């Protein structure tokens, strides 16, 4: 793995209780490098979204989730901290799979978070909105219609608007959950180009089902299977010289079918993230 870790999990377990107990993550210990893009991959239902959401405690909105282990963020611990959750989630932002604009103007979609978290003059907000929209390569497309509703944009533009909204509260880390899966190829390429440029300034951790996307974008790759960490390595080593047999099978296109059959046989008790990864994430609440 490259660079120093911006986030580190230590023996992280996540269990969902309900009609039956399901272990979503089992003893996952992994580093996420600073100012790099890490792709989390694996078959559907393997715990990718659970791992992503556990990094800023977003999965706690599900009342049946039980967590043990720890996530280390700089010199603080995520689960044993006095830091208010809104502040933690400001520093570790989340961009959901489904592009979801706030019911307000393009300008206010970006300015909403800063208005809550800080005391900005109108000139400062104007500059911040422009800066964030430029970072996501959207400014030139919307500069003359900032008062239009955010929902009037195309799906690809809305996803970039959501990225700009996350950047406006000055996070250190961006958690991206399948952010191109709902987009057409041209829009997906634009978002990929945006992520490629943003990793110079931010740490990006991204769940993806696309092996090709992981090859194109990732500096590091984390591979999960049945809730366990199989392999974590820099992208070149991961794809060209994988260390684990399970990784070799997965990269070659084999090795997922067994798990998918197991998941299909237990749908009635599937954990929430299995259902989301199969059917698509529901729009997440806005976390500022």
UniProtKB/TrEMBL annotation:
GO terms for molecular function: ATP binding; ATP hydrolysis activity; phosphate transmembrane transporter activity. InterPro entries: AAA+_ATPase (IPR003593), ABC_transporter-like_ATP-bd (IPR003439), P-loop_NTPase (IPR027417), PstB-like (IPR005670). The keyword Metal-binding does not apply. Signal peptide: none annotated. SMART domains: AAA. SUPFAM superfamilies: P-loop containing nucleoside triphosphate hydrolases (SSF52540). Residues 7-251 form the ABC transporter domain. Keywords: ATP-binding, Cell membrane, Membrane, Nucleotide-binding. Residues 248-288 are annotated as: Disordered. The keyword Cell membrane applies. This is ABC transporter.
């Amino acid at each position: 793995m490259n660079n120093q870790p911006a986030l580190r999990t230590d023996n992280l377990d996540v269990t969902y209780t309900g009609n039956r107990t399901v272990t979503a993550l089992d003893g996952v210990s992994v580093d996420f490098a600073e100012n790099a893009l890490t792709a989390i991959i694996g078959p559907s239902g393997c715990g990718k979204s659970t791992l992503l959401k556990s990094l800023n405690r977003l999965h706690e909105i599900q009342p049946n989730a039980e967590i043990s282990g720890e996530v280390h963020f700089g010199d603080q611990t995520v689960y044993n901290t006095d830091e208010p959750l809104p502040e933690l989630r400001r520093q570790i932002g989340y961009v959901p799979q489904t592009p979801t604009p706030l019911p307000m103007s393009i300008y206010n979609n970006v300015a909403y978070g800063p208005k809550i978290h800080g005391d900005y003059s109108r000139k400062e907000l104007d500059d911040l909105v422009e800066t964030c929209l430029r970072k996501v390569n959207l400014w030139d497309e919307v500069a003359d219609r900032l008062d239009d509703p955010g929902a009037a944009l195309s799906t690809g533009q809305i996803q970039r608007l959501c990225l700009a909204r996350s950047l406006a509260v000055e996070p250190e880390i961006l958690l991206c959950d399948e952010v191109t899966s709902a987009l057409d190829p041209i829009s997906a390429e634009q978002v990929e180009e945006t992520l490629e440029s943003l990793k110079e300034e931010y740490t990006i951790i991204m769940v993806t089902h696309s092996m090709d996307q992981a090859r194109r974008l990732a500096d590091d790759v984390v591979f999960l299977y049945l809730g366990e960490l199989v392999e974590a390595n820099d992208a070149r080593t991961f794809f060209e010289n994988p260390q684990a047999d399970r990784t070799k099978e997965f990269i070659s296109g084999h090795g997922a079918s067994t798990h998918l059959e197991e998941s299909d046989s237990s749908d009635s008790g599937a954990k929430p993230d299995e259902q989301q990864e199969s059917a698509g994430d529901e729009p997440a609440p806005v976390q500022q």
